[in-house]
Amino acid sequence: MFKRFPGLFNQAIGIDLGTANTLVFLKDRGVVLREPSVVAIRSSTRKPIAVGNEAKMMLGRTPGDIEALRPMKDGVIADFEISEHMLRYFIGKVARRSFFTNLTVVVAVPYGITAVEKRAVQDSAYRAGADDVITIPEPIASAIGAGLPIEEPAASMIVDIGGGTTEVAVLSLGGIAKDAARSIRVGGDEFDSSIIKYIKNSYNLIIGERTAEELKIKIGSAYPLEQELTYEIRGRDAVSGMPREMHVSSQEIREAMRDNVTQIIETIKGSLERLSPELSGDLYQRGIVLAGGGALIRKIDRAISEATGIPVIVADDPLCSVVNGTGKILANSSRWKSRD
User: Fold this and answer.
1) How confident is the model at residue 66 (pLDDT cuts 50, 70, 90)?
2) Which of 145, 173, 170, 144 minimizes the C-alpha distance to 284?
3) Domain boundaries in the chain?
4) pTM, two decimal places
């Protein structure tokens, strides 16, 4: 049997395998892929027929024999077989595989992940074509991607609000202060679910995930706006079953998401309460950095700052903080592999 020649051609990619979106960083090229973590399958055979952008367009619109699935839930793999196919598809789009190529993959995983869940991610990556797999806690990848000086003895705090989880961590000397690290399963998906529930309870109108996400992006806020917004939505009347449209205000969407925002704030405060006075002093001076898609919710930085009394800064590119961090880790992968 022929064996691959190790190291003859090396490729390295970093993956932010998110609940809502998957981003891929190719060494020396940057972020080369950003697509929804969605796979469309034929129900009778469970055979995938579309992945990513094409599959997301099918959400809520598929015929009886086709399902659009999200194989990631709360930041971890919920469907091993489908997630493996999705990973294989994304890796195949960006990496040139051959008999002589060695592929290293760095994957960011939630801080609160179990050993079984972590192993599922590693196995999926190996089965999708990786030769070496390194898993990195999302708070570390996000902080590195956001440009925080995590190697310094002073404290830095990252709050990454993703699709399935919110990761809260204080970093110093290249590591996470364990007593102050939190991972809660509240993120963009929970915001969307809360919006769906609010619209149904308030107006007897049933809307889908895509509409809820549009509302969150277009008019969602965590703090009162100088000029409140409205947005037109369409859905199905829960009583008559007929299509209906209506306008919704940003005040209403803020109310719908209020409990989710409160959970995130309480998690941050719980982390801060466990810090030493020295680390607390560092954060008061340096502030809290927000990353992830949730950081783009209007004025969420203001809401967190008022609740904690600490300055809050949104990362320059919050959606790409994690995947950019995996890219920087690729430059010194041997060091991080020893920690994995």
Assistant:
1) confident
2) 170
3) 9-140+322-337, 148-314
4) 0.88
Q: CB under 8 Å to 175, separation ≥6 — which residues?
A: none
Three state DSSP letters for 138-198: HHHHHHHHCCCCCCCCCCEEEEEECCCCEEEEEEECCEECHHHCEEECCCHHHHHHHHHHH
CA–CA separation, 116 and 120 (whole Å): 6
What is the spatial distance between Cα 146 and Cα 290, in angstroms, rounded to a whole number?
9
The CA R_g of the chain, rounded to the nearest whole Å, is: 21
For 35-78, give the secondary structure using H, E and C. EECCEEEECCCCEEEEECHHHHCCCCCCCCCEEEECCEECCEEC
Euclidean distance between the first and the last CA atom of the chain, given in angstroms as a whole number: 31
Per CATH, 9-140+322-337 and 148-314 having the same topology is answered yes
DSSP 298: B
CATH topology of domain 9-140+322-337: Nucleotidyltransferase; domain 5 (3.30.420)
Do residues 69 and 97 touch, judged by C-beta distance below 8 A?
Answer: no
Helices 188-203 and 250-272 pack at an angle, to 10 degrees, of 140
42-62 pLDDT tens trace: 888 888 889 999 888 877 666
- Distance (Å, whole) CA 146 – CA 318: 7
> Is domain 148-314 classified as CATH 2.40.100.10?
no
